[in-house]
Amino acid sequence: MVYQFKIYTHRYYTLLHGEALQQTLREVFLAPGGQVLLASFSAARWLAPYARVAGEFFTTDRAGEARLKAALKLEPAAKGENITIDLASDEGVFQDAMEPAPGLRCTGLIQTWLDLAAAGERGGEAAQHLFDERIAPLWKSEA
């Protein structure tokens, strides 16, 4: 199921990078309270890697955004962000979440495809790759 929801995008900067960032993100996913999902290019890195884009992308609710802000020590960024958080106004987007690796959660295949298709840059190519690698085979297996 795909949900239409209004998105409030917040852009942040964190000094964490590399292994320190990845470890902190895993801790965020394990912590209780709020919804946090990898989204867009970040979800695609786990589902069907294609495009390399700097930064991390998330879909969260308000409590999930607060968890990310605290754990990653996020500072607002008008330019040069390396963390982009889309605050979902509809809880439905969390219902199709996937676990691409132990301890991580991301948006579902169709939501990730939609996010990539709307992303610009290499998003269209990444969306097509995700479709070819993960979505189309599901249709073929149903036939």
Helix-strand makeup class: alpha+beta
Mean pLDDT: 90
Taking pLDDT < 50 over at least 5 consecutive residues as the criterion, the unreliable ranges are: none
Radius of gyration computed on alpha carbons = 15 Å
Distance between the termini: 19 Å
Helix content: 40-55%
How many structurally independent domains? 1
Q: Can you summarize the main beta sheet?
A: 5 strands, mixed
Strands across the major sheet, in which order?
A: 2-3-5-1-4
Q: What's the order of the H and E elements?
A: EHEHEHEEHH
Number of strands: 5
* DSSP summary: helix tally: 5
The best one-word shape is globular
Would you mind describing this structure in some detail?
The structure is a single chain. The protein is an alpha+beta fold and 143 residues long. It has one domain. It contains five helices and five strands, in the order βαβαβαββαα. Strands 2-3-5-1-4 form a five-stranded mixed β-sheet. α1 packs antiparallel against α3. The chain starts with 6 loop residues before the first strand and ends with a helix. 34% of the residues are buried. The mean pLDDT is 90.
